[in-house]
Structure formats: structure tokens, C-alpha cells
Amino acid sequence: MLATGVSMVVIDATIVNVAVPAIIADLGLGATDVEWVNSIYSLMFAALLIPFGRAGDRYGRRRLFALGVAVFLVASVLAAMSANGPMLIGVRAVQGVGAAMAVPMTLAIINRVYVGRQRVIAFAVWGSIIGGMAAAGPLAGGWLVTEYGWRAAFWVNLPIGALLLLGSLRVPESRDGRATGGDLAGLVLAVLGTTGVVFALIEGQKYGWFEPRRTADLFGLRFESVSPVPFAFGVGVLALVALIVRERRRERAGLPVLVDLTLFELPSFRYGSMTAVIVALGEFGMILVLPLFLQSALGYTAFQAGLVIAALALGTFLAGGLVPPLSKTLSPRSIVRIGLALEAAGAAGIGLSLAPDMGAWRPVPWLLLYGAGIGFATAQLTGVLMADVPARLSGGASALQSTVRQLGAALGVAILGGVLVSGLGSAVERGLSDRPQQVRTSAARVVEESAGAAIPALRDPAIHAAAVVAAAEATRRVTFITALALLAGVGITLLLPRTPVVRDESPEQVAAGGPDTGGREPDM
């Protein structure tokens, strides 16, 4: 039930990406409106994870989960009824608020309620559903939008959310009895910091980091001769630094804190968070570039591309079912390492299989391998990361690790998106070496600025052929960088503390303050 709650959030984000062309046609949105339909959701979600995580510890995790689902549902209804761009953007922001309430509570409740191997199984189910739904979202979105229109992408949340609200009644309530008053200044700094950094990482390629690429109208301010990205990034970093300094001072003074930085003193949480950043960056690579390549370069529809990507979801679900028996003989750290290695091999294989004239099923075996890696790594990494976290701090720790993952995903947008776009432009120019410089530059700019989306509209056969080859080269480069990032994640797992093969625990052990850490056995 908890995993389904997060999967609803994940699916909604991916479905909206597929539905964008239909939304534009129906509501007549401009380019800026379209960008904010997606960006505002991610920004609100990332910015509010930390404060809502602490709120769950204080006021009750089940209560905040149910409230988040309810807010998400109300916003979904309003989104489905939206009559114009500003209304849709506004309710997407509210959806982000609801998602920020619900998502960290799922991990916090799992960490508090389940023990021993049951916790391993719970995290395996959670991870396989989340990873699988992220890949299946484009397929579901393509079908829904094609058959029922873009509004169905929001109406579909109603039956799922209603079942979640009913199911939440069976979840035991938990909270941190020692949690006290809030930290308003810390809250402002956390929201400002995460919003600034995530905005800069997501929008840097669009607006430019130093030289402005386009005019930006943000919150009533118009940026023409300068990009807003470095300002947002600078403000975000300064706010996060100020937050760390403030929380350290409050901690020493015995005052309540918004972010419990002592969590990073736990080796499992510290190195697990570092691995999570790398994993999020690497995993984002495939979801970012492969559907775009299939649709823009090979001419697939959104639904056809979703069918290919569904192999990734299948691999994730299959691997999730193998984790419980594997956990009888392998430690969680070992399962994470195996998963990351499989992901790296899958990403490299996908890159080697890409070609301008490839068949639809050529990358499928590698997508299955990549998905299996996600099924092994993602859920168990969460379990490793949360292993030594006291149960009373589950909400704050879950929110903090979710924020870390969001920052890793945003970093993936910045790095891998930049690699894709720059690779497209340079490869198009090379492919048109026999054409005049003006033609080469113009074609490269069109393909680069659209991230390849303009390829199907290119009428000149030579330019179209060069653009397709360029898309294959640039996408291949991103997949190889993704593989290297995931291999770096394997290296970081070597820093994780040795963990035992998980045994069942008694409720008395959990009530004593957290998971049993005794009886360590040999680890890989």
C-alpha cells in the first residue's frame, strides 16, 4: 500500500511528460507555461521534503501520509478540470506539496513498522514498484492520452488515491515523542536552498549558466541580458550553508532542529547518501535519453517507445521478487553492489546496441538487465541507508534521503542533459561537413535547442539523416557516462559498513530503539 502511494506520485510525473503535446493543443499553452507545468511540481516536491519529514515525526507519520494523499487527489481533480495554463500550473504546485507530504512518510513507516527480513522484503517491494512504475509510466501515459485525452492522466489518480486512503486506516500510527517546537528560520532556509539549487540544475541547460540562451520571466522579473540560473544557484547554496551552520548551533544549544545533521555521523547514512546521489544521477540517464531517441530519431509514437521501455520495468519487478530469497545468504550491502554492477552493464549494453537503423527490440535484453539492477539496488540501498537510523527519527531521515535523491536526479538533468545537447550539435555539424557553414550551424542549432525533438520535422533528407546519426551518437555517449557513474556508485559501496545477513527480529528489539546490529556475518 505504501509503495503504491509513491508509485502514484511517480506515474503522475511521467504521464504528464507524455501528455504535454495534447495539453498544448487543448489549452493553447505557450513555451513558458509548458516548462512550468513540469518544473513547478519538481520544485515544490524537492523544496518541502525536509520540513514535512520532520512534521511527520512530530505529528504522526500515518496522519501526514493520508493528508498528503488527500491533497494530491484534490489537486489531481483540479488539474483534470483546468481550463487554462495558469490554473494547471497552480494545481501542479499543490500536487507537489501533497507528494512531499506522502513520499517520505512511506519510508519512515516501513522503517518503523517492519523488522529483520520483513524489512528487507518491504524495501524490496517498495523499490521494485517504484522503479517499475517510473519505467511503465510512459507506456501507461501513452495509452491513456491516446485513448481518453490528457485529462485522464489526472483522473486516473482518483481510484488509486481512494484505495490508499482506505488502506492507510490499517497502518499503525507512529511519531517521535521527543519532537518539540519548530524552526521557522530553518524552514525558510531549507525551502530557499533546495528550490534554488534544484531550479538551477533543472533549468541551467534551458536558460544558460553564464551566457543567457533565452529570455526568462520568473515571478514578475524579466531576465534578458543575464541568466537567472547562476543567481538561483548562488542563493540556494548560500541558504543551504546557512541552514547547516544554524542547525549545528541549535543542536549544540539543545534547541529543536529541522535537519538532524547527526544522521551523517552514521557511516551507513553518510555513504549511503553519497551512493544514492550517484545512483539517482545514473538512473536518470536512461529515462531521460532513451524515450527521446526512440521518438525523435526512430519515429516511434509515445506508446511504442513506452512498450520498449517497459522491458526495464519488467526487469525491475522480476528482480524485486528475487531479493527476499537472496537476502537469506547475502547482506543488503552485497545486493546493492550486485544491482549497481548490473545497472552499469545494462547501460553499457544499451549504448552498444544503439544505431540509427536498429530494430525496436535490439536494446530490450539490456533494458531487462538494467531494470534487474534497479530492482536489486534501489530498494536495498534505501534499507542500508536507513539501517542504523533510530526509529524516532525515521521521518526526518526519510525526507533527507529523498531530498538527496532529488538533488542527484537534478544533477543528472544538468550533466547528462548537457552532454546530450552538446553532443547533438557537434555531431550534426560533423555529419554536414559538405554543406555551407551557415547551413551546418543552423541545422545544429535547431536540433540542439530542441534536444532532438525537432528531428522528425526536418525536411531535407541529408540534414534529417545527419541528425538521426547525431542522436544515436549523443545518446550512446550519455549511456556510457551513465555506466561510468554507476560504476562509481559500486566503488562508494566499498565505504559502507559491513552489514550482516538480515535475521528476523522481535518487536522487543525494535522497541528498544532500532534494528539489531549484532551477529555480523561475512560480507562480500
Automatic annotation (TrEMBL):
Residues 1-500 form the Major facilitator superfamily (MFS) profile domain. It is found in: Cell membrane. InterPro entries: MFS (IPR011701), MFS_dom (IPR020846), MFS_trans_sf (IPR036259). PROSITE patterns: MFS. It holds the Pfam family MFS_1. It comes from the Bacteria. Keywords: Membrane, Transmembrane, Transmembrane helix, Transport. It is a multi-pass membrane protein. Residues 505-524 are annotated as: Disordered. The keyword Membrane applies. This is MFS transporter. It comes from Microbispora amethystogenes. The lineage of its organism: Bacteria, Bacillati, Actinomycetota, Actinomycetes, Streptosporangiales.
